[in-house]
Design brief:
Number of strands: 9
Bound molecules: zinc ion
Oligomer: single chain
Radius of gyration: 16 Å
Shape: globular
CATH class: Alpha Beta
Number of helices: 4
Largest sheet: 7 strands, mixed
Length: about 180
């Protein structure tokens, strides 16, 4: 038996984590064994939680390198979930391939492009090998239409990897991005 690779992508505030966790819930209801990972952007290890807006919570293992995922893989795991993949190294691609050949399903969620509209390397490579891609949209902060595909930075440049929320980024559609860029 082999597994499959699903990638959930899109801009900030498009509900990627919620979608990822909805799949965790499906596996859990089916009494399948799951394990969730998220990058440790502050180099802290241990267990963290990931939650949806509706309050569904799961425990997530913080990792600093994609290869650490393999340390947690046991015979009985049916599916592996990784959130915020844009912050993980590209070795995640090789690990995902290895896991599916072991019969494990792999679900990854993360940003597709940076606020400079450059594709994130890990996400784009996973998109290329995915069996299924779920491309999410957010509500545009400017026009209110559910068609935002860009994460626009509203503060001075702090680099392409600059963690933040609504204080730093808004989701906008292409039409509004064009206006913002003048
Ligand atoms: Zn718009």
């Amino acid at each position: 038996m082999v597994g499959k690779i699903t990638v959930i992508t899109g801009p900030m505030y498009s509900g990627k984590t919620t979608e990822l966790l909805s799949f965790v819930e499906i596996y859990n209801i089916g009494r399948k064994k799951t394990i969730v990972f998220k990058p440790s952007i502050d180099n802290r290890y241990g267990i963290d939680t990931v939650s949806t807006h509706t309050g569904f919570q799961v425990k997530a293992h913080r990792i600093t390198k994609a290869s650490e995922i393999l340390d947690y893989i046991t015979e009985d795991i049916d599916a592996v979930f990784v959130d915020e993949i844009q912050f993980l190294d590209v070795q995640l691609v090789e690990i995902a391939k290895e896991l599916v050949f072991k019969g494990i399903d792999v679900y990854c969620a993360g940003l597709d492009i940076s606020y400079l509209e450059n594709p994130f390397e890990t996400t784009s490579k996973l998109l290329a090998i995915a069996d299924e891609v779920i491309k999410k949209r957010a509500v545009c902060e400017k026009c209110g239409e559910h068609r935002a595909t860009y994460s626009y930075k509203i503060v001075p440049d702090g680099g392409e990897i600059d963690v933040g929320g609504k204080d730093k980024y808004i989701a906008v559609c292409r039409e509004c991005l064009k206006k913002l860029k003048g």
